[in-house]
Amino acid sequence: MQLHPVKVYPSKALLPREQQLAWKIAGVAVDPVPVEDDVAEMIVNRVIDNAAVAIAAINRRPVVSARQMALGHPREGGATIFGVEAGRRFSPEWAAWANGTAVRELDMHDTFLAADYSHPGDNIPPVLAVAQSMGKSGAELIRGLATAYEIHIDLVRAICLHEHKVDHIAHLCPAAAAGIGTLLGLDQATIYQAVQQAVHVSITTRQSRKGEISSWKAFAPAHAGKLAVEAVDRAMRGEGAPSPIYEGEDSVIAWILSGRTKADRDGRPSVYEPVYYQVPLPEPGEPKRAILASYTKEHSAEYQSQALIDLAFRMREKIRDFEAIERIVIHTSHHTHYVIGTGANDPQKMDPKASRETLDHSIMYIFAVALQDGRWHHVDSYTPERAGRADTVRLWHKIETREDPEWTRRYHSHDPNEKAFGARVEIFLSDGSRLEDEMAVANAHPLGARPFGREDYIRKFRTLTEGLIAPAEAERFLEAAQELRRLKPGELHRLNLALPPGALREGRPGIF
Questions:
Q1: Which residue numbers delimit the MmgE/PrpD N-terminal domain (predicted)?
Q2: Residue 258's pLDDT is what?
Q3: 405, 407, 399: which is closest to 426 by C-alpha?
Q4: What's the alpha-carbon Rg for the chain, to the nearest Å?
């Protein structure tokens, strides 16, 4: 990997495109380096994973709404939509919208956490939709997804959006554009413009994950995927983009991220901070292996709760009377404390009437339910009846989080053997005794007690799709997914999953 310094330049510098991050991203996208076998196999795993969580969410309201919108854009020879028979095809940007929403709705697919957050599996719906529409092969899809994962994860390793209250889809959109560029075999100049357009149109605020979290949390990455498809389409037609998108005097780093001093923002003489983002990217000829640094979820909840759910299962074995718990303190990282903990100062995170989207971003709620139930279910653990249970509310409101500098340090560690997303938990009992335990990574993490392998992905798929699709349809899909590298041009529709006739819900009418 090579580190690329990225900072703001005044317009008069006329920064050559060869020195711009977007050009370098495009260079990675056009590099013909082969995809290594273990990377290709992990891509298969994530294709299975995405399909599982999409079907599990197929009749939830946001997914129904997104699908209804997409159904208004049929296209002969286009892309498939989860739940709908594969013979019906749709415009790829709208298929990316519908499938991306389905994949994201339950918050149960893959994740990568570093300087910022990400769900790199969100790249699969837009890249797959374009691949289906353009008659590409399984091998070409794998190449495109290897690029999308690589760029997404490399941006997340280097550039923190969260500290500036920018939503993390601003890294997803350019990654998806780069992946589509690889898939289609576009030249570097075209991908460069597509990446710049994708960055420019995908800057949104983190209010989508703050306060009363709405269905937009599921729509946001689908929106980024749709924007990426459109950005590539425009670039292919010869259209340009704001440039340089990262380094420009009035661009992303300058006014949205860390490129200017406070004095400059207040209108005093322009002072550019001598602070660089150091973005790692593969060197020419270096394999794209970033997907192997990401990890999926065993439990349907925000990733930083995964280890804490497993820890709650372990700690509950030592508790005889849950009413004897006086308080629980979770010592954890800055991100966990301020995003899903009491440090967020969101009263909705303690409200039994809060939305599911809010509850899956409340570690206080999640830990209480996991501690009481000893299980986690993507539906049952979030029902209004479960959230409103009086004994759960009492326990839930006894839980607080605190930032621990050591857990913050480990969260940001570049050493994969030290990097941690867990916590140390203290449970104080009414008799004066105290239980204490800690867990660094979830059991399903590559360094966890039970790392996920192919059979785990398949088991997760069967669990989440049971009763929703016919057994023969499940087996057909699993066979196709595991043959991905050998699927011929025009065969990628086999990666779709259809529900039985009449099983798809219809939503409220809109414009489309």
A1: 19-261
A2: 74
A3: 399
A4: 23
Cα angle, residue 374 at apex, residues 372 and 375 outer, rounded to 5°: 120
CA–CA dist 209, 357 (Å, integer) = 9
- Beta-sheet pairing, 423-429 with 325-332: antiparallel
CA dihedral 298, 300, 303, 305 (to 10 degrees): -100
CATH topology (fold) of 21-241+274-293: 2-methylcitrate dehydratase PrpD (1.10.4100)
pLDDT below 50 — which residues of the chain?
Answer: 261-265, 269, 272, 274
- DSSP class per residue in 162-225: GGGTB-THHHHHHHHHHHHHHHHT--HHHHHHHHHHHHHHT--BGGGGSSS--THHHHHHHHHH
In the prediction, which pLDDT does 412 show? 86
How many CB atoms are located within 10 Å of the residue 431 CB? 9
- Cα-Cα-Cα-Cα torsion 182, 187, 190, 194, nearest 10 degrees, comes to 20
Superfamily of domain 303-439: 2-methylcitrate dehydratase PrpD (3.30.1330.120)
**DSSP 3-state assignment of 377?**
coil
CB 187, CB 30: distance < 8 Å: yes
Please say whether the beta carbons of 194 and 240 come within 8 A. Answer: no
Structural domain boundaries of the chain? 21-241+274-293, 303-439
- pLDDT for 243: 93
pTM of the model: 0.89
Is residue 327 within 8 A of residue 340, CB to CB? The reply is: no
- The SS3 assignment for 287 reads coil
Q: Residue 295 pairs with which residues in a beta bridge? A: 111
Determine the Cα–Cα distance for residues 367 and 342; give it in Å rounded to an integer: 13
Structure tokens at 370: 């996991």
